[in-house]
Write a structure and sequence with these properties.
homodimer, 152 residues, mainly alpha, Multidrug-efflux Transporter Regulator, Chain: A, Domain 2, two-stranded antiparallel ribbon, 2 strands, 3% strand, DNA-binding
Chain lengths: 152, 152
DNA sequence: TCTTGACCTCAAGTTCACTTGAGGTGGGAC
DNA sequence: GTCCCACCTCAAGTGAACTTGAGGTCAAGA
């Protein structure tokens, strides 16, 4: 097979460490758009490996798949993204990561302070009035790190 | 009602921002152990508010409820924990938080480097051999930040 | 020729962290 | 007395992110 034929789903699985079923699921969610060969099988670009890695990293930061999709939608879907393409989406995204890291650091310090404070005055303790209360509305699992779809 | 009667589930909900149903669920999961009054209603200590806050913060760091339970099991369940009690569990837990933060920072830098690298040599790029591959086994949602129950 | 392996689809199952709903109790306020 | 409200239990539903299973295609190798 020539390089232009692209990679099979098995190749992508081997290269990314993702399960084949997960890759199919990601296609369904619009995170990748492989084309099909004559036999109806998925064919991927090498650049899709990077897309998948991006997904995996963003997930660790607590982004949901729809959110990641929004980021990736700013990349070209059917042409290999250039360095400039990636750099463009990187700017906003990196800021988001920094924000999440800072938030966790603040949270850790809050916990630190409160564990140490003894809290004879319960009302005054930061823990009892946390900056962001857990979302009370909606069902399903809570989004981590304060990144909920409805930031009301 | 005297202070010694403790707080109702509604009080706890109001003070923590958690839903009443969530508090009942947390009891079921062994995260809190309220006692019951004559009418069979849950009664909480003031210290339970702190317990719940701890749960909420730990969750934001990506800990699962069983993991949080393990941490909390090191506190006395039916007596109000002292400052020393909290300080004791704080040591190990704080280290875990620092580790998670460091991990995210490294991940962010990896992404940064890889977005900037152009990657003419795909094989050499750190993204194609991420330090920790996503778990391939098991069902259900992936645990965030590499903290899975079975660290095989 | 036959089998194996990699791929395909579509429906249903799974885990986590909850919420929702149905049906019931008990105590104040009017 | 009756109404409401806060609470109770237990079963079932929900959303996210996948996995598993059943049943089928197709090409390459023994």
């Amino acid at each position: 097979m020539a390089v232009s034929d692209g990679l099979s789903i098995g190749d992508i699985a081997a290269r990314t460490g993702l399960a084949v079923s997960a890759i199919r699921f990601y296609e369904e969610q619009g995170l990748i758009s492989p084309w099909r060969n004559d036999a109806g099988r998925r064919r991927f670009q090498r650049a899709d490996i990077r897309r998948m890695s991006f997904v995996m990293i963003a997930q660790q930061f607590g982004f949901s798949l729809p959110q990641i999709r929004t980021e990736l939608d700013r990349l070209p879907k059917h042409r290999a993204p250039t360095k400039a393409d990636w750099a463009r989406i990187s700017v906003a995204f990196r800021a988001g990561l920094d924000q999440r890291i800072a938030r966790l650091q603040k949270l850790r310090d809050t916990l630190d302070g409160c564990i140490g404070c003894g809290c004879l005055s319960l009302e005054a303790c930061a823990l009892y009035n946390p900056a962001d209360r857990a979302a009370k509305r909606g069902t399903g699992p809570r989004y981590l790190m304060g990144d909920r779809p409805d930031q009301s």
